[in-house]
Amino acid sequence: MIERVRYPRICPVGDQALLVEFGASYSRRTSRQVLAFDNVMNRAPRGVCETAPTLKSVLIHFDPELIPARQVENWCRDQLAEIDWDTKTERLREGLRWKLPVVYGGEHGPDLTEIPGLSGQTERQFIDSHTSLDLDVVCLGFSPGLAYLAELPKIFDLPRRQSYGRPVPAGSILVANRQTVLPATPIPTGWRRIGMTPVPTFLPDRKIPFLLAPGDCVRFYPVSAKEAEKISPETFWDRLEHARSQD
Amino acid sequence: MPVKVIESGILTTIQDLGRPGYYHLGIPVGGAMDRLALRSANALVGNPEDAAGLEFAFMGPVMEFTEDASFAVCGADIPAKVNDVEQPGWTVIDVRSGDILSFGFLRSRARGYIAFSGGIDTPQSLGSRATYAIGALGGYEGRALQPNDILPLGPEKTGGRAGKSIPSNLRRATSASTKLRMIPGLYWHRIVKKSQLNFFEDVWTVANEADRMGYRFHGGREMKFVEREQPFGAGSDPSNITDACYPYGSVQVPSGTEPIVLHRDAVSGGGYFMIGTVISADMDLIAQLQPHTKVRFAEVDMAAALNARASRKAMLSEIREVLK
């Protein structure tokens, strides 16, 4: 028996949530549809409390005392039927474009030494590809403010470790399964840690506490540990506040 | 500055009803695992039901009152003591400055909730006082309590409630026949029909990994998966999916062996498939299961889930009525 699922699909998630899924896996197109649909959800009827976009789906929390699940489902179904999602995605708001410094290898990226064995690339080649791409911030999640970045070429199709090691620090640059993630807090992980950015992406006391948001674009550039010390995170955070105040 | 921690107990944290609205940033809703117990304790001492109190697991803290106050303990069956004299549970107790609150041994269930008159008045973080230790948010400096922590209480709104009590029929509790009701869905289609049937037939035992993030169960038969093409971004195990959000109450089964019901501090997403969601009315009960307890899962539909929700709500109204 082979799994067969049609997308987009709406599935119930207990008695106070629904999931609208646009595909079985991430693709740029799927992800853009997810973000466009998440925007549309701003107009959802009363009783819909919160939505959360992910790589391929939108989770919708509602209060069943205020709105029946059936009604949320029908509303979503109508939106899905009425809207041409590919046209809609063209009108998505331009996110911010970030250039983030990364110290690769050494104590900042101890798993980089495993890369030649896993991918057939030298460490240098691997860093060159990792810094030559504009990556989309697809969603935040797993842990507070952890950013999922896509999409990486096939050489980044590295297996995750089967078990979790000691927690990695906030700012770690992790790779696996053709994605990079950037945790904003310390997390346990099975992903490979290849570097570290000196720019914090979560400052809880800021008005906007997370630096990155879905729809943003990130390009990494390599710096030495010495250069990293001279980088002022303030310039990044000031830019964020300036940009958001223009919205 | 009326309550001082002398001994911390186990995983004693400040909790309220949580911080909804930040899930899209990776921050779970958090808050008391047994919400009805916290609401009951707050209602007893005359607090708003969403006031912050303490949650502890298996072993209570020892605390000294440095001002007159009142408190109530709900949830686990564990005797509270004032100056070593045992006090009834689910009841308002008045204390004087200098009195010591301590606990005897746990008799049943798992988590106790202490509400203090006025509520714990630590600063809010993202709209809530709930401790989310993994993200170091809320609570007392974002962590579980330690000896010598001093908990500020808000101004007391009501008094003269000593002796008020919640009758035993309104103390919701787990029993030997506890069934956790689940609505199948999400990636239910990933396992074969036989495994779907087995899941509800098998007896599952609460594992030692049973905490604010989730409850793991073992003892049931291993699941068999429907074949598929490995989706982009998913791990190679058949239980892996392209990372998705993990809703509160959802049941994930890494490698198809031991189901984990995700509770209030669960990570907001990840790469394991989920077979369904435990209904909201039963999530409080999970918080009161001790490791090694045997339970079964029962399949229900939305209508049953809403009925269960309504009866839980009716119970809460009755509690409010009794305490008027």
Give the SSE map.
The complex is a heterodimer of chains A (247) and B (324).
Chain A: E1 9-13, E2 17-21, H1 28-40, E3 48-53, E4 57-62, H2 69-82, H3 85-90, E5 97-104, H4 115-119, H5 123-130, E6 135-140, E7 147-150, E8 172-176, E9 179-182, E10 192-196, E11 217-222, H6 225-230, H7 233-245
Parallel strand pairs in A: 5-11
Antiparallel strand pairs in A: 1-2, 2-4, 3-4, 5-10, 6-7, 6-11, 7-9, 8-9, 8-10
Chain B: E1 3-7, E2 13-15, H1 35-45, E3 53-57, E4 62-65, E5 69-77, E6 80-82, E7 85-87, E8 93-95, E9 100-103, E10 108-116, E11 150-151, E12 179-184, H2 193-201, E13 204-210, E14 214-218, E15 240-245, E16 250-252, E17 260-262, E18 269-272, E19 274-278, H3 280-287, E20 294-299, H4 302-322
Parallel strand pairs in B: 12-20
Antiparallel strand pairs in B: 1-4, 1-11, 2-3, 3-10, 4-9, 5-8, 5-10, 6-7, 6-9, 12-19, 13-14, 13-20, 14-17, 15-18, 16-17, 16-19
What is the strand content of chain B?
Answer: 25-35%
- Structural class computed from helices and strand pairing of chain B: alpha+beta
- How confident overall, as mean pLDDT of chain A? 90
The total of beta strands of chain A comes to 11
Give the count of helical stretches of chain B.
4
Helix content of chain A: 25-40%
Strand order of the largest sheet of chain B: 12-19-16-17-14-13-20
Oligomer: heterodimer
In whole angstroms, the N-to-C terminal distance of chain A is: 50 Å
**Share of residues in helices of chain B:** 10-25%
> How much beta of chain A, percentage-wise?
15-25%
CATH superfamily (homologous) name of the largest domain in chain A: Cyclophilin-like
CATH class of the largest domain in chain A: Mainly Beta
Radius of gyration of chain A: 19 Å
Order of helices and strands of chain B: EEHEEEEEEEEEEHEEEEEEEHEH
Task: Please indicate the count of domains of chain A.
Answer: 2
